[in-house]
Design a protein that fits this description.
The chain is of the alpha/beta class and 384 residues long. It has 13 helices and 16 strands. The longest helix has 16 residues. It is elongated and about 125 Å long.
Amino acid sequence: MFAPPSAPSKGKGGKKAYDKGNNNNAFEDKKGPNKKSILRRELENGMEIDDSEIARRFKSKKYQKQAPVVTQKAIEKAVINVDPVPIKLLSEKIGKPIAELMKMLLLEGVMKTINDSIDFATAELIAANYGIELELKADKSAEEKLEELITDESVDNTEPRAPIVTIMGHVDHGKTSLLDYIRNSHVAEKEAGGITQHIGAYTIEKNGQTITFIDTPGHEAFTSMRARGAMVTDIAIIVVAADDGIMPQTVEAINHAKAAGVPIIVAINKIDKHGADIDRVKRELLNYDVVVGEYGGDVTACPVSAKTGQGVEDLIDTINLFVSEELKPMANSKIPARGTVIEAKLDKAGPVATILVQNGTLKIGDFMVAGSVCGRVKSMVNDK
C-alpha cells in the first residue's frame, strides 16, 4: 500500500511550504495559463471566435513585425546651383554631418561657422574626399525662364498680326508730315520747330489692312532712337526729299535698317516742289547699295507728296503687297505679352512707357520686366 501524501507543512508566517520536487508545477499553477493555451483550449472546446478577437489577443510586441532597416543609398553625384556654396547646403547634398565638414575645413586651416559659405572649388574637393562628384549647375534667371515660357508657343495658335513700319530719314524731309497725311492728323504742327523729338507709334487701317507706324526723329541728336526704331520694325521706309537728295541722316537710317536686317522701301517725298529730281535720288541711292527696281534691284521706290497726297495710296498698296507676299507676320494672342519699350518718361502720374507689343496680349494688372526694371500695368492708352 502507498502511504497518502503528507500535507504540506506550514513555514514561518503560516505560509505553505512546497516540496522542492513539485516546484515546477507549483510555478505553473501560480503563473496561470497563457493567452496561447487559453485560445487553444477554447478552440478545442468548439467555441466560436472571430478573426478580430484572434487579432486582438495576439496583438503584442512579440507578434508584431519589426520595421525593415532602411539603408541609405550611397551618393555618387550631387548638383549645386549656387556659388559660393553654403555649408548647410553642401551637407544636405552629400549627406554628411555639418560638424564633420567643419572639422575637415579646420584641418585645412579654414575657419568657418555653420552659416558661412565656401567657394565651389573647395566644396568640390570636400565632396571628392568622400568619392562624390559635385557639379555646378546655375539656376536660370527669371528673364530666361520668362523667355522660355513666352517662346514655348504652338504654331497652331498663331494668327496674322499688323506689320510694324518704321519711317526714317533726314530731318525736315517730311517723315511726320507723310504720316500725318496717312492718319489725317496734324502731329507735325505740334512738334517744337516742326521737328520730331520723340518716337511716335500709331495704328491705322487702310484698304482693310491694319498697319502700325513708328515715326522716328530725323535730327542727328536722336541716333539711338532711330536705332531702336529699326530694331523693332518689319519694314523700314526711308524718306528722301526729292529736292535735297541723300543727306547724312538718310545714310544713317539706311545703315540702321541694314544692320537690323529689315527690308527697305524708299519714299521720295516733296515731288510737288520746284527742283524735285526723282531720278537723281535713285542714282544717289546706288552709292549706298540701295538698288531700286528700275536699275535691276529689289528695292521699291515710291514718289509721294505729303502735302498733296500724290502717290501716298501707291505707298500703302506697296506696303500691303509686301506684307501679304513676303512678310506674313504672325503672333499668338493667347500667351503673355512680349514687346519693346520704345521710350519712357516720368510723368506726374508715375512712370510712363511707350510699348510696342509684338506678341501675346498685355492686360491691366500684368507685371512687366524690362532689363533690370519691373513694374505693374496700371492703365493703358493708345494713340486714338
